[in-house]
Amino acid sequence: MIPDSLLNSPLFQLERLRRRTRDAVEAALSTKDLGVRAYWTLSCLVEADAASQASLSEALGIDASDIVRLIDALEQRGWAKRERDPKDRRRQIVTASKKGRKAHAELLELVNAAELEALGEDNTKQLKHVRKLAKAVED
User: Fold this and answer.
1) Domain spans of the chain, in order of start
2) 50 near 93, Cβ under 8 Å?
3) Range 16-138: architecture per CATH
4) Per the database record, which ranges form the HTH marR-type domain (predicted)?
């Protein structure tokens, strides 16, 4: 039995929500032999057109060495490509390939379905509230 103090705790409830949705999304993505962090990285590349490895690391809160491995995996699938920044040869610019954009569109549907299933299809109103809360925290 969960104590009332935890049931009334936003932190505890958000953690439960995070665990439930992440588990569902991870399970869905595993059918494509992909993890959630690789999906997030691809999403950033598709929606931002191009990014540096450092900016991806910062935006996603993922260690720089892990971002390198995630991009390596996306490159191996033909979903991303790296190029040297002509203004700063030390910097790598990463972009999504055409194949990566197509894969992302399919993965997005998979992820959205997994999130809805995890939250319950009748919870679309609550999902809007969660997104609103997330935007408020972001600002």
Assistant:
1) 16-138
2) yes
3) Orthogonal Bundle (1.10)
4) 4-139
Bridging pattern class, strands 88-96 and 80-85: antiparallel
Distance CA 35, CA 130 (A): 23
pTM, rounded to two decimals: 0.85
Q: How far is CA 71 from CA 28, 53, 82, in A?
A: 20, 8, 9
Tell me the per-residue pLDDT of 22-57, one tens digit each, with 9 for 90 and over.
999 999 999 999 999 999 999 999 998 778 899 999
Yes or no: say if 107 and 26 are a contact pair by the CB < 8 Å rule: no
The rounded distance, in Å, linking the Cα atoms of 129 and 53 is: 32
Contact criterion met (CB below 8 Å) for 35 and 130:
no
Cα-based angle 100, 30, 126 (whole degrees, multiple of 5): 90
